[in-house]
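This week, work through this protein record:
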Amino acid sequence: MNKQELRKQFTLVRKSIANRTEKDTAIAEKLQTIIGGHDSVFCYVSFGSEVSTHKFIQKNADKIYVPYTNGGIMKCLKYLGGELNADKLGNIDQSCYGNEGNPTLTIVPMLAFDKFCYRLGYGGGYYDKFLSSAFTVKVGVAYDEQFTDEVFAEIFDVPLDMIITPTKIYKR
């Protein structure tokens, strides 16, 4: 199966996941234990059927940086507080952004993942471009149902250091 077909399949899989609140809570609890040693965390702002990050961001607001995407480039900007209503690129209201930074931990979304900690994203390449040059611990969050045995990684795909699901932590 090619990446486009996998994206279609796992978009539907992710939309159909039941018990999201409990699963999001389990993921957030695991994330909370991991961020202890980090003073700065870059975290996507969830929307749609993604693993919810809103409560996590608000709880850890003093450490959080969020993405700002424009012109094919994604920047890591300090979260200053405020509404977490993301557009399709993950951008929030401009008044919520502060200075650019280089967090030591990055939390990324995905549509699917494999046992080698490769993630299948949305196809824009924003996170792969960012992660290929950032010195950061790379953590993905997903539901167990997003796991696949399909081989989809390409030369420009950046593997994550770990992927957290409600029931397991995959490590590279």
Notes: Strands lie at 41-43, 64-70, 73-79, 97-100, 105-108, 112-113, 119-120, 137-141, 162-164, 169-171. The first strand starts at residue 41 and ends at 43. Residues 20-34 form the longest helix (15 residues).
